[in-house]
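In response to the reviewer comment on reproducibility (Comment 2.3), we provide here a single inverse folding case reported in full, input and output, so that an independent group could reproduce the run without further information from us. The structure tokens appear first.
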């Protein structure tokens, strides 16, 4: 998609299909059989609720119901503690395993896996590579481990794994593995008795 082209409108059937793909991904991830009881349980998980509120707010946003979209996004934020604005585009089969402190901005591909305290965003600068001004474009099958952050107008290729506590501010080619350098003690601590 060209950065200046408006996003395509989603039909209600397409939105339901996206929600269904997220639910199926969660069921597969948790290795649970498809039953009514498990579906109720899945709908109570904050990670799935965050995606559900996002899918509904994105549907409203693309139909130009901006105030409804913002309201749904805010309710989702208050209920799940995950911030996903309706301007963010997320592909099918997304999985948020721990919703607390998750923040997702930009354009995100299919089957992303996001763990707790992970963030995609930036918004600084005017460069738009397709995710919005200053926001990243994330490929398909990307894993963001706990505490990882992808910031700025960068491209993350398909199948990239971003390790725990890693800050990514540069493009990563498909299939890449990005890890934070091993922490080290700079100065010894005071011994307490």
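Designed residues, in position order:
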């Amino acid at each position: 998609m060209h950065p200046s082209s408006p996003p395509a409108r989603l039909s209600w059937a397409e939105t339901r299909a996206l929600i269904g793909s997220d639910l199926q991904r969660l069921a597969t991830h948790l290795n649970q059989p498809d039953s009514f009881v498990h579906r109720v349980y899945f709908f109570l998980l904050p990670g799935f609720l965050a995606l559900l509120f996002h899918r509904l707010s994105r549907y409203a946003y693309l139909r130009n119901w901006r105030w409804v979209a913002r309201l749904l996004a805010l309710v989702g934020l208050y209920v799940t503690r995950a911030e996903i604005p309706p301007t963010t585009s997320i592909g099918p089969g997304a999985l948020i395993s721990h919703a607390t402190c998750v923040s997702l901005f930009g354009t995100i591909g299919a089957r992303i896996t996001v763990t707790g305290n992970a963030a995609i965003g930036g918004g600084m600068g005017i460069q738009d590579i397709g995710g919005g001004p200053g926001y990243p474009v994330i490929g398909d099958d990307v894993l963001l481990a706990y505490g990882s952050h992808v910031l700025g107008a960068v491209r993350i290729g398909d199948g990239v794994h971003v390790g725990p506590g890693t800050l990514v501010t540069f493009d990563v080619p498909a299939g890449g593995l990005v890890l934070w350098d091993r922490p080290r003690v700079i100065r010894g601590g005071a011994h307490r008795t």
